[in-house]
Design brief:
Its cofactor is thiamine diphosphate. Pfam families: 2-oxogl_dehyd_N (PF16078), E1_dh (PF00676), OxoGdeHyase_C (PF16870), Transket_pyr (PF02779). This is 2-oxoglutarate dehydrogenase, mitochondrial. The chain has 4 domains: 217 residues, no CATH class; 335 residues, Thiamin diphosphate (ThDP)-binding fold, Pyr/PP domains (Rossmann fold, 3-Layer(aba) Sandwich); 214 residues, 3-Layer(aba) Sandwich (Rossmann fold), CATH 3.40.50.12470; 137 residues, Rossmann fold (3-Layer(aba) Sandwich). The protein is 36% helix and 12% strand. The protein has 33 helices and 26 strands. Helix 14 packs across helix 23. The longest helix is centred in the first third of the chain and has 24 residues. It is elongated and about 110 Å long. The termini are far apart.
Length: 1011
C-alpha cells in the first residue's frame, strides 16, 4: 500500500531549480511517488491544491490493473513496495537503462544526465502542466466577447507557459505516455502517447477556448473525475444537423423577439437581453435535459433584464399578452398591478421529447436577488408535496442573476447557504449569471473584489462554468452539462455566461457617458445570430436562404401576435406564478361574517394533544428541569386551568395537523424557542437522539415540521414566503429570534408580504412571529417595530366601514397585524388562519414576559365550545374587582404586555373606576367592536391610549386617527378626544439601562392615572 508522507520536502534536495523555474527533481522520485491524497496540498506554487495528489494514487490504481500502463519508473517503485515492503524512501530502483542507483537505494540520476532520466523528469513536468490547465486554464479561456475583462487580453498565468517548466522547442515532439494525470481519456481511443505539442494543443482546446471550467476547489475526487470524464475527451460536444436546427430556431426566436420589441416600442423600457441572447437556447436545453432525468416542476427566479424574452420564449407566455402590456391595453381587474418586467407566470410546457414540465417564473421586484430564497422555498414545498424530499428528482430551481448583483447582494450567500441544510435543501440549484460585465454604470473593478462574480460559489464547492455568450454551441454544451451535474449530484452548479449589455441600464439610457470604450466595442460587434449563421453556412449545415426564410417566418409570427394584441383580453391567472386550483380568490368569495369563525376544538381532542406533547418515548431521557415543564403542561390541559402561551400554540399546531393541514415552523432556535418556552423537539440526555411529540399525534395526521434555521433573516423569511405560495393547505410560520431582527428581512416584508397580492395577485398565508415588549433589555431586544408593519396596512383610517365592508375587512386587507395577550387568543388566531376560504399574511407580535405571566393564562373552556378569536378584550367583563360599566370614569386602550403594568398600577392605587380595553388585532382595525364597547361605558369621562413605546414608534400613530373615526360613530362620545400616555419621542428604540427603563415606565403609568 502507498504510505503517506506529510508533504513534499521544500529543501533544495526535494526541488531543483532549472532555468530559474522550480520543478520536481527526479532525485526525489521515490519520495514523490509515495504521496497520499493530501500530500500535494502544501505546494507553495499555489496551483497544486486540493485533489492534485490524487494522480499518484491514480497511477497506483492503474498499475494494479496493468503494470505497463504507467511509466517504467513507477512500475519499479510500486513493484518493490508490493513485493518486499521496503520503506518508501528506498522503494524506487532505477531500471537497467538508467544510471546505477547509489548506496541507500534513492534514485540518484540528475536531469540531463541521460536521455532516459530526462524522460522521467519530462513526464513529471507534463503532469504538472496538465494540472495547471485544469486549475488555471479558465483564466486563459476566450470567454469575453468584448475582449475586455477575461481571456486573451489578460496576463497568462505563468503555470500555463512552457518556460515555467523549462521546456524548449526541442521538447515539443517528445512522446509522452498518457495515463493518470495526463489526458487519460485520450488513451481510451487507443492512443498510448501524444507529443508534448499535441498535449498542449489539446489542453488549450479543452480548457482555454470559449468556455472555462473551475472545479479543482471541489474536495470530492469522484466529482472532479466525473467532470474530467466529460471535459477531457477528444470531442466534448458535437451536434447533429437536427440539433443545430433546434439551436438555430431557438436563437432566432430569442434575437428576433428583442429586435421586434425595439422596432415596435423604441421608447419603452424593456430591459432587453441583447448581448446575452444565448441564455435562451441554453436554458431551454437545460430544461429539456432535466426533464429527461425526471424533473416535473421547475421554479425560476430572475431579475428584470431578459424577463420578457424569458416569458415569451421559455415559459411560453402569449406574445399577444406581452404586446398588449406595451400598448397599455391591459387593465388590472384587481389590485394595482406592476410593470411588465416584474411579472411572473406559470405554464405547463412541452419538451422536445414530448413530455411536459410545469414552469413557474416567480414575480420579482427591482430588488434584484430578493426572489432567490422565494424560489427555493417554493421548490422545497413542491418536493414536500410530491414526497420527494431526499431524492430531489421531481422539482428543481433555476436562478438567473446579474453579475454585479450576484457578487454584491448578501441574500445570494444566505440563499446558497441552504444547499445542504436538512430542512431547506432542494437538491441543487442551477445558477445562471447573465454577466453583462457592468452593474448599471459601475465597472466590475468597483463592484467586486474577485476575478469573477461567481467566486462566492466556491464556498459551497459548486462547479463553475464560464462561457462566451457569442458561442452558442458552447453555451448549449455548458447548460446541458450543468443539468447533468444537478441530476447526478443534487448540488448547486454555476454558469457564468459572459456577454454584454447592448444598451444602457434600460433602452432609454445613454451608457457612453460612463463606459465610452466598452460601448465603442459593442457598437462595432455583430450579433450572436450573425456569428452562428455564418458558422452554419461556412460548415455547410444550412444555406443562407434556409436561414433567412426561417427568420422571416418567425418575424411574421411576431407580427401576427402584435396585430392580435389590440383585442387581447388578458386574465390575472396568466401572470400568477402559483395558481391555487379550486381555491377562490378574495374577490370571488361569498360574504363571510367575522369574527365568529368556528375555530374551537373538542375537549377530548385537546386533552389527547396535551398528553402527547408532554411525553417522551420509553427509555428516552428528558432533561430533569424539562420534565417539570412538560408535567405542568400536561396538568394544565388535563385540569383545564393555567394553560400557558407555548401550550396554547402547541394545541393549535397539533389540532391543525389532525385536520390535515401541514404545519411548518422555522427560524433561529425555534425548536426550543429563543426564550426556552416551546420545547417542540426533545433531546435525549444520553445520546444524540431527538423526539418531536407533535409528529406523533396520529397515524393519519398531516406533517409537522419544525427546524432551527441558519443565522439568516432575509434568506429564511424569503424561503418560508416561497414555501407558503405552493399550497393554501399549509400553515407556514417564521419566527424571529428577537422582533427587531426581522429588520434585515425588510425587503421581503415590503415587497412581497405587504404588496404581492395587489401587484401580482400572489396570495400567501405566511405567519411572522415577532417577539416584542419593553423589559429593560436595551434598544436591540425590545421592539419588533410594530409601527413599520402598521404603516404598510391598507385600510382607510378616514371612514368608518359600511356594513358590507365590515363583513369583508379581512378579505380586503393586504395583511393582518395582531398582538394577542392570551394563549387562547393565539390558538384561535392560528386556527383562523387556516379555516378561512382565503389566505392573508399574518404578523403576530408576542410578549416575552407574557410567556410565563400569570395574567397570560387561559382555561380549557376558552379553546372549546363557541369560543373564537377576540379582536378586543374588555377587562370589565373579566375583572370583578372594579366597578360596573356604568360607573367607569376612565377607559384605557392598549395593546400587548403593557396591560400587565397597567393592571399592577391600578391595583396599587386601588382604582375602581378605570377599565382597560386590549386591542388584540390592529389590522384590520376593530372599528365596530370598539364603537359598540365604548358606547357601553355611559359614564366615561377620560379616554387614554397607553403604549410602552416612544410616541414616534409603536401603534399610537396608527390607532389615533382610527379612534377619532370610531368616536364619531358612537352615540355618547362624539365629542371625546383621545389622550396619549407613553414614552416621549426618541431616536433610540428603548433605554439602555434597566433603571432608566423603570423610570420611564413609572412616568407614563402616572400619566395614565392622572386626572
Amino acid at each position: 500500500m502507498l504510505r503517506a508522507v506529510k508533504s513534499i520536502s521544500r529543501s533544495r534536495g526535494g526541488l531543483r531549480v532549472i532555468n530559474n523555474q522550480r520543478v520536481i527533481s527526479a532525485a526525489n522520485v521515490a519520495t514523490l511517488s509515495s504521496l497520499s491524497r493530501r500530500s500535494l496540498a502544501t505546494s507553495s506554487d499555489g496551483f497544486l491544491q486540493g485533489n492534485n495528489a490524487n494522480y499518484i494514487d491514480e497511477m497506483y490504481d492503474a498499475w494494479k490493473q496493468d503494470p505497463q500502463s504507467v511509466h517504467i519508473s513507477w512500475n519499479a517503485y510500486f513493484k518493490n513496495i508490493e513485493s518486499s515492503g521496503v520503506p518508501a524512501s528506498q522503494a524506487f530502483q532505477a531500471p537497467p537503462t538508467i544510471i546505477p542507483t547509489p548506496a541507500g537505494g534513492a534514485a540518484g540520476f540528475i536531469p540531463g544526465s541521460s536521455p532516459t532520466s530526462e524522460d522521467v523528469v519530462t513526464h513529471l513536468k507534463v503532469q504538472l502542466l496538465v494540472r495547471a490547465y485544469q486549475v488555471r486554464g479558465h483564466q486563459k479561456a476566450k470567454i469575453d466577447p468584448l475582449g475586455i475583462s477575461f481571456g486573451d487580453n489578460t496576463e497568462t498565468p505563468k503555470e500555463l507557459t512552457l518556460e515555467y517548466y523549462g521546456f524548449t522547442d526541442a521538447d515539443m515532439n517528445k512522446q509522452i505516455t498518457l495515463g493518470p494525470g495526463i489526458l487519460p481519456r485520450f488513451a481510451e481511443d487507443g492512443k498510448k502517447t501524444l507529443s508534448l505539442k499535441e498535449i498542449v494543443d489539446n489542453c488549450e482546446r479543452l480548457y482555454c477556448q470559449h468556455y472555462g471550467v473551475e472545479y479543482i476547489h471541489i474536495p470530492s475526487k469522484e466529482q472532479c473525475d466525473w467532470l474530467r470524464e466529460r471535459i477531457e475527451i477528444p470531442t466534448p460536444f458535437k451536434y447533429s444537423p437536427d440539433q443545430k436546427r433546434q439551436i438555430l430556431d431557438r436563437l432566432i426566436w430569442a434575437t428576433s423577439f428583442e429586435s421586434f420589441l425595439a422596432t415596435k416600442f423604441p421608447n419603452d423600457k424593456r430591459f432587453g437581453l441583447e448581448g446575452a441572447e444565448g441564455v435562451v437556447p441554453g436554458l431551454k436545453a437545460l430544461i429539456d435535459t432535466s426533464v429527461e432525468y425526471g424533473i416535473e416542476d421547475i421554479v425560476i427566479g430572475m431579475p428584470h433584464r431578459g424577463r420578457l424574452n424569458m416569458l415569451s420564449n421559455v415559459v411560453r407566455k402569449p406574445n399577444e399578452s406581452i404586446f398588449s402590456e406595451f400598448t397599455g391595453s391591459k387593465e388590472f381587474d384587481e389590485g394595482s398591478g406592476d410593470v411588465k418586467y416584474h411579472l411572473g407566470m406559470n405554464y405547463a410546457r412541452p419538451t422536445t421529447s414530448g413530455k411536459h414540465v410545469n414552469l413557474s417564473l416567480v414575480a420579482n421586484p427591482s430588488h434584484l436577488e430578493a426572489s432567490d430564497p422565494v424560489v427555493l422555498g417554493k421548490t422545497r414545498a413542491i418536493l414536500q408535496y410530491k414526497n420527494d424530499i431526499g431524492s430531489f428528482k421531481k422539482s428543481m430551481s433555476i436562478l438567473l442573476h446579474g453579475d454585479a448583483a450576484f457578487a454584491g447582494q448578501g441574500v445570494v450567500y444566505e440563499t446558497m447557504g441552504f444547499a445542504n441544510l436538512p430542512a431547506y435543501s432542494t437538491g441543487g440549484t442551477v445558477h445562471i449569471i447573465v454577466n453583462n460585465q457592468i452593474g448599471f454604470t459601475t465597472d466590475p473593478r468597483f463592484a467586486r473584489s474577485t476575478l469573477y462574480p461567481s467566486d462566492i460559489a466556491k464556498a459551497i464547492n459548486a462547479p463553475i462554468f464560464h462561457v462566451n455568450a457569442d458561442d452558442i454551441e458552447a453555451c448549449v454544451f455548458v447548460f446541458n452539462l450543468a443539468a447533468e451535474w444537478r441530476a447526478t449530484y443534487h448540488s448547486d452548479v454555476i454558469i457564468d455566461l459572459v456577454g454584454y449589455r447592448k444598451h444602457g441600464h434600460n433602452e432609454t439610457d445613454q451608457p457612453s457617458f460612463t463606459q465610452p470604450l466598452m460601448y465603442q466595442k459593442i457598437a462595432e460587434k455583430s450579433s450572436v445570430i450573425d456569428y452562428y449563421t455564418e458558422q452554419l453556412i461556412t460548415e455547410g449545415t444550412f444555406t443562407k436562404e434556409d436561414i433567412d426564410e426561417h427568420k422571416k417566418w418567425v418575424w411574421n409570427m411576431l407580427e401576427e401576435s402584435f396585430s392580435k394584441s389590440k383585442e387581447y383580453q388578458p386574465t390575472s391567472r396568466e401572470w400568477l406564478s402559483t395558481p391555487w386550483e379550486d381555491f377562490k380568490s378574495p374577490k370571488e368569495l361569498a360574504t363571510e361574517v367575522l369574527p365568529h369563525l368556528p375555530t374551537a376544538v373538542e375537549e377530548e381532542t385537546l386533552k389527547s394533544i396535551g398528553k402527547t406533547i408532554s411525553e417522551a418515548p420509553e427509555g428516552f431521557e428528558v432533561h430533569r428541569n424539562l420534565k417539570r415543564i412538560l408535567n405542568a403542561r400536561r396538568k394544565s390541559v388535563e385540569g383545564g386551568e393555567g394553560i400557558d402561551w407555548a401550550t396554547g400554540e402547541a394545541l393549535a399546531f397539533g389540532s391543525l395537523t389532525l385536520e390535515g393541514y401541514h404545519v411548518r415552523v422555522s427560524g433561529q432556535d425555534v425548536e426550543r424557542g429563543t426564550f426556552s418556552q416551546r420545547h417542540a423537539v426533545l433531546h435525549d440526555q444520553n445520546s444524540e437522539q431527538t423526539y418531536t411529540p407533535l409528529k406523533h399525534l396520529s397515524e393519519d395526521q398531516a406533517a409537522f415540521d419544525i427546524s432551527n434555521s441558519s443565522l439568516s433573516e432575509y434568506g429564511v423569511m424569503g424561503f418560508e414566503y416561497g414555501y407558503s405560495l405552493t399550497s393554501p393547505d399549509a400553515l407556514v410560520q417564521w419566527e424571529a429570534q428577537f422582533g427587531d431582527f426581522a429588520n434585515t428581512a425588510q425587503v421581503i416584508v415590503d415587497q412581497f408580504l405587504s404588496g404581492a397580492e395587489s401587484k401580482w395577485k400572489q396570495r400567501s398565508g405566511l405567519v411572522l412571529s415577532l417577539p416584542h415588549g419593553y423589559d429593560g433589555q436595551g434598544p436591540e431586544h425590545s421592539s419588533g417595530r410594530i409601527e413599520r408593519y402598521l404603516q404598510m396596512c391598507n385600510e382607510d383610517e378616514r371612514y368608518f366601514p359600511s356594513p358590507a365592508k365590515l363583513e369583508r375587512q379581512h378579505q380586503d386587507c393586504n395583511m393582518q397585524v395582531a398582538y394577542p395577550t392570551t394563549p387562547a387568543n393565539l390558538f384561535h388566531l392560528l386556527r383562523r388562519q387556516m379555516h378561512r376560504q382565503f389566505r392573508k399574511p399574518l404578523i403576530i407580535f408576542f410578549s416575552k414576559s407574557l410567556l410565563r405571566h400569570p395574567l397570560a393564562r387561559s382555561e380549557l373552556t376558552e379553546f372549546t365550545g363557541e369560543s373564537h378569536f377576540q379582536w378586543i378584550i374588555d377587562d370589565v367583563e373579566l375583572n370583578k374587582s372594579i366597578a360596573a360599566k356604568e360607573d367607569i370614569k376612565r377607559v384605557v386602550l392598549c395593546s400587548g404586555q403593557v396591560y400587565t403594568a397597567l393592571h399592577k398600577k391600578r391595583a396599587a392605587l386601588e382604582d375602581k373606576t378605570t377599565a382597560f380595553i386590549k386591542i388584540e388585532q390592529m389590522h384590520p382595525f376593530p372599528f365596530a367592536q370598539l364603537r359598540d364597547t365604548l358606547d357601553s361605558y355611559t359614564g366615561l369621562e377620560d379616554l387614554v391610549y397607553c403604549q410602552e413605546e416612544p410616541l414616534n414608534m409603536g401603534s399610537y400613530a396608527y390607532v389615533q386617527p382610527r379612534l377619532r373615526t370610531v368616536l364619531a360613530e358612537t352615540e355618547a362620545h362624539k365629542d371625546k378626544t383621545l389622550r396619549y400616555a407613553g414614552r416621549d419621542p426618541s431616536a433610540s428604540v428603548a433605554a439602555g439601562s434597566k433603571a432608566m427603563h423603570t423610570a420611564e415606565e413609572e412616568a407614563f403609568l402616572n400619566e395614565v392615572f392622572s386626572s
